[in-house]
Amino acid sequence: WVHNNGSCYLFHEERITWESAREFCLGLGADLVSIHSAEENAFVNDGIPGNAWIGITDQENEGVFSTFTDGTPIGFQNFPGTASSHQGEAYDCAFINLTHGQWAWRDCENRYLAVCK
Length: 117
Description:
By secondary structure, this protein is α+β, with helices and mostly antiparallel strands. It has helices at 18-27, 38-47, and strands spanning 2-4, 7-16, 52-57, 91-96, 103-107, 112-116. The longest helix has 10 residues, at 18-27. The radius of gyration is 13 Å and the shape is globular.
């Protein structure tokens, strides 16, 4: 676990599906990471060696997401352009892109790293 600005983070370096990533984090008493500022986004991006799942999904209600999976409100966003514009209904889970730190939507069955908080 790594401490930063009052929160603890675990960078899990196994590539797994979004659901498996969430289950892994919940099993540790945490959840997939919620990111609330540009500074926190940079910290998370600096800690990952590849693309990683974050705690946002619209699986239950397509195009609707107002809270992270940990229940905190989504205020800060780092989606390029319009957050709700993702490539079709199959792209229901969000990840942080290592290359530029922006968030994007992907099929939840893709395999990425996980960041727990």
